[in-house]
Amino acid sequence: MSQLQPSFGLTKRSATTGALAPAKAETPVAKLIDVSKCIGCKACQVACMEWNDLRQDIEENVGLYDNPHDLSPNTWTLMRFAEWDNPERNQFEWLIRKDGCMHCQDPGCLKACPSPGAIVQYSNGIVDFISANCIGCGYCVKGCPFNIPRISTADNKAYKCTLCSDRVAVGQGPACAKACPTKAITFGTKDEMKKLAAERVVDLKDRGYAQAGLYDPPGVQGTHVMYVLHHIDKPQLYAGLPLNPRISPLVELWKGAGKYAGLALLGLTAAFGVVHHLLAGANRVTEEDEENAEKLRGGGA
Amino acid sequence: MTQHRDGEAHLQVPRYSGSARINHWVVAISFVLLMISGLALFHPSLYWLTGLFGGGPTARWIHPWLGVVLIIGFFGLFFRFFAANLPERTDWVWLARLRHVLAGREEYLPEIGKYNAGQKFVFWAQAILVLVMFVTGIGLWPAGLAYFEQLLGFKATIDQRRLAAVIHAGSAVMTIAIWIIHVYAAIWVRGTISAMTRGTVTGGWAWRHHRKWLRKEIGKEPGGPQPAE
């Protein structure tokens, strides 16, 4: 269960028309995941399970380090292990990315969600699913550019990383960041994290990773989970991290203009009926029509 | 067979059998429930409509099952009525004189069989839209999609599912607009609704709106005049 953190102000609320109560403007936060420092120990996964009390069913070993196989309603973060032969440096690279919700500044899940208040964005940028309001329709799955939300078949609700909003609300960092033994995961204000990332990028460039950089994609107005990547020019190497993530134009059409155009068309059709009836009046059968029918039946038509 | 019912001045012409009417109302009721539960998720201002189903989760799961009821029911209507809805030459004349249709000037229109071109349009448009909405609806129904993916051995991509959402919503708007026209026409043309409640229309109604059909119906009766054509 994921619950609303009332200590945070809201900047966005799903399926809500009209203005929100003015939010207390909190400082934007971010989690920085430095892929170059990750050793793939999965302590973050365990910490996530422990803090959020999640237990994934044991699966079959298919010869991959990825365990479980995929994100699920009970797996909100997952180490994805990718192998790459770097042709420039002529070396084998093991690219381990901690996958999970990116907490987009422009969240596609929230845009697609039809249920009022089932998805919120706090003024610190965290995107949270509020289980009590979730109806299990799966629209968030279609809205997400990162393939993150998963619908539980047990309670028909959507689940994903909360960025430990319950911990952040009481001044703690996310459980995964706390557990990480190499400080590959750090948490703080978004500005601090960008500064830290900039230092790391300089260091990586020094060590020969000319394309090192920070993954904070502008297509979704930046994210509140960012990666330091050795190869920012090839994010797809990291188990399919998208190059230019954005809310799909199909979702924008569906939940943007389509919504208003659709209702307008229905309103116009109904208005046509009303106006037509006012102008043309009822189309009534006359007594003459009835007599003509009688005559026809009697053989006189 | 046309007849005078007790206490009724006008000739009654049978138009729909009992089973056709039941079939129609199964489709009609499932359509209205689908429309309400669908619109509830279409625009936030209409989300309160989920309350009529006992809340969002119920509206969410009942919608696809109502869709299954509707498409089965619609198959019945399709096979009952498709022959009478095949296009013919007078349909073009009728359409060309739509202005007179809207003004209620039947005297300027050709004699019409069981259905006019407007009714035929409703029939074929809804038949196509119902099919499109069923297919795209499966793309939006996680449990149903998983079933069909396993049954047919494919995996829908996320972009296919997004496209399904757009097409489903767009088709829904069209199908509801056509439904509004269908309901309005039945109200505007007085004497129509009894066709789907009691199964009969008056002779005058048939003479005024579907004279060719009336001639045929009377022609079928023993001793009745032969069809004019």
What class do helices, strands and sheet pairing of chain B give?
mainly alpha
Average pLDDT figure of chain A: 95
Number of strands of chain A: 11
Count helical runs of chain B: 10
Fold blueprint:
The complex is a heterodimer of chains A (301) and B (229).
Chain A: E1 10-13, E2 29-34, H1 43-52, E3 77-86, E4 91-100, H2 108-112, E5 119-122, E6 127-129, H3 139-143, E7 150-151, E8 158-159, H4 165-168, H5 175-179, E9 185-189, H6 190-206, E10 213-215, E11 225-229, H7 249-255, H8 257-280, H9 287-297
Parallel strand pairs in A: 2-11
Antiparallel strand pairs in A: 1-5, 2-9, 3-4, 5-6, 7-8, 10-11
Chain B: E1 3-4, E2 11-14, H1 18-42, H2 56-81, H3 89-96, H4 98-103, H5 117-139, H6 142-152, H7 158-188, H8 194-197, E3 200-202, H9 203-209, H10 211-219
Antiparallel strand pairs in B: 1-2, 2-3
Helix pairs in contact in B: 1-2, 2-5, 5-7, 9-10
Key words describing this protein structure:
A: alpha+beta, Alpha-Beta Plaits, four-stranded mixed β-sheet, three-stranded antiparallel β-sheet, 9 helices, elongated, B: 229 residues, mainly alpha
Describe this structure in words.
The complex is a heterodimer of chains A (301) and B (229). With 301 residues, chain A is of the alpha+beta class. Chain A folds into two domains: 10-254, Alpha-Beta Plaits; 256-297. Helix content of chain A is 29%, strand content 18%. Chain A has helices spanning 43-52, 108-112, 139-143, 165-168, 175-179, 190-206, 249-255, 257-280, 287-297, and strands spanning 10-13, 29-34, 77-86, 91-100, 119-122, 127-129, 150-151, 158-159, 185-189, 213-215, 225-229. Chain A has a four-stranded mixed beta sheet with strand order 9-2-11-10. In chain A, strands 1-5-6 form a three-stranded antiparallel beta sheet, with no helix packed on it. In chain B, a hairpin with a 6-residue loop joins strand 1 and strand 2 (11-14). Chain B is mostly helical. Chain B has helices at residues 18-42, 56-81, 89-96, 98-103, 117-139, 142-152, 158-188, 194-197, 203-209, 211-219, and strands at 3-4, 11-14, 200-202. The longest helix of chain B has 31 residues, at 158-188. In chain B, helix 1 (18-42) packs antiparallel against helix 2 (56-81), helix 2 packs across helix 5 (117-139) and helix 9 crosses helix 10. The interface between A and B is large, with 53 and 59 residues.
